[in-house]
Write a structure and sequence with these properties.
Chain lengths: 294, 294
DNA sequence: GTACTGTCTTTTATGTTAAAAATACAGTTT
DNA sequence: AAACTGTATTTTTAACATAAAAGACAGTAC
């Protein structure tokens, strides 16, 4: 009938961790800024800590009575917001049933499945619709437009346009811009991962995203940066969809990234162009090969 | 407490217009497809028509008893959905108070103002947020990011990238593609409007949008086409914001469009490039000049 | 057999509501 | 005076309820 208290529970858990390290908790406003929540929530947490006998709470003094133990924490399944639950459920459905174009999505059904209200589902679907994979017919059901060949091609075209723009913007950054040293660090991570690729190839997607986001940030264009949310979502999905030849694909992507980074550091526009193009072409074909047979 | 019956009312009104022209209404499924609604709604409309004495309704026979008069129609203010009401209110607010960056938007307040439930407001804001002008901090208010100089520049950059892509795609269309004749027709409209610009310059925004959408459709890329929704919204907003020198701006935009169209018809890529670039540059400076002083 | 109608079952749209969380303000303590 | 606490006031979150609208299916008319 009302909202869940996930903020309270998450904050409580983080406060326990904090309590493990210090004998006295700081003032309420200080706790609030440290934990990123309002004083109302802080006070609710303090009240519960006092009630459980973890601290004594009298106005300004909040001394610890005993260190927190693992069973004091709220279990992780209770600290997820409905929005997150719905998102996970929905993505899992996509992975399981595939994204058959033309099929419908029922709000109630998804709500039942996820164990949340229809409101949360509906808001999630509206937010998700910005990715262009689903569409709402007024007064009717949600239409799954599907991860089709056309979708993949359109996506890849925009990506290439944006990446080209961002790479050019990166070259225009001042020599002492922090992005350059970030680039050096991320290059080192690539080299390290390449050295032990057999053990660590599963970590690549995360590195991949960080690298491309670094480049895109140079454009400082919110539309380009936002668009990468879609790319990241699709890639994440696709990584789970088709794991055949994963190690090889990741290994060669790492080499492409390194070549791309070196091209950026050389500041030779022509070299950047060919390096990024090579990467785009292989990323595009990987994406297309992963499409469900149609 | 429940949804409003705007579909019913709109359908009823359109059915009245239909009834003005024919003595007998067709079958229920036929009416449904003609009016774009379900049979359930059609039957509700028929029931009401019979009740009001406009028709006699007995199974398949639906003869007209009297022609509809103006007072039979539902008044226009009753045929707006909450979603539309909220949208209008919100845009009016933007126009009136401006888009001061950093100010907040309260859902309840907007709901009270528009006379609708908070759900409708919330869903509108989520949908609207895809334009990047507002942003939500979890558990907190909506933040108005504002139509700033940065926003305008980022928008113009993307627009230019996309327009370039679409223009190239247009050139690649087959000679017998219907878009070419549509282009000819739209050129004629430009010429006609230019001839009586003093009377008709206010009609330009609509023509402007149709022209650019025609070009963008050639890309057949959903992301490019979707992005034009944002452009159109901003332009519509901006047209109302700053009307100084409107006639002159529109007049020269018409000439730029004609040059652009002629370049496309010449199929000379270089000529297209310079024509579209000229238009982009002037569109960008118009947009920037319209910014509220900051 | 095809198209239409009657009726029943889902699903969506949207206002209402209650708890959670944020915010605002007045009063205290240091 | 500055920072903190106590308390009251908004605002958001999210479930829920219900009418509107869509969709499904069997029976009926042509």
């Amino acid at each position: 009938m009302s909202r869940t208290s996930i903020v309270f529970k998450q904050t409580y858990n983080r406060c326990l961790t904090m309590l493990g390290r210090c004998e006295h908790l700081p003032s309420e406003p200080e706790l609030g800024t440290a934990l990123g929540v309002s004083r109302t929530t802080v006070r609710a947490v303090l009240a519960r800590l006092a009630e459980t006998g973890l601290i004594r709470w009298d106005k300004r003094s909040k001394p610890r009575l005993r260190p927190p133990s693992p069973e004091d924490y709220f279990p992780p399944e209770e600290t997820d917001s409905p929005a997150e639950i719905v998102e996970r459920r929905f993505m899992r459905r996509l992975l399981k049933h595939g994204v058959a174009p033309g099929s419908h999505i029922s709000e109630v059904e998804l709500a039942r499945e996820a164990g949340v209200g229809t409101t949360s589902v509906r808001e999630f679907l509206i937010r998700f619709s910005r990715f262009g994979l689903i569409e709402k017919r007024p007064n009717s059901r949600w239409l799954l437009k599907g991860f089709t060949r056309e979708f993949a091609l359109e996506l890849a075209d925009i990506r290439q346009m944006f990446e080209r723009n961002s790479a050019a913007a990166f070259l225009a950054l001042a020599d002492d811009h922090p992005a350059w040293s970030a680039l050096d660090r991320i290059r080192a991570e690539h080299v390290a991962m390449a050295a032990s690729i057999d053990d660590r190839y599963e970590e690549f997607p995360e590195l991949d995203e960080r690298f491309h986001r670094l480049v895109h940030n140079a454009s400082s264009n919110r539309f380009i940066i936002d668009f990468y949310d879609l790319i990241a979502m699709i890639f994440n999905y696709h990584y789970q969809w088709n794991r055949a030849g994963e190690r090889e694909r990741h290994a060669s992507a790492i080499q492409e990234h390194i070549a791309y980074i070196d091209a950026l550091r050389s500041k030779d526009p022509e070299r950047v162009r060919s390096a990024f193009l090579a990467h785009m072409v292989s990323a595009r074909s990987t994406l297309l090969r992963s499409l469900p047979a149609s």
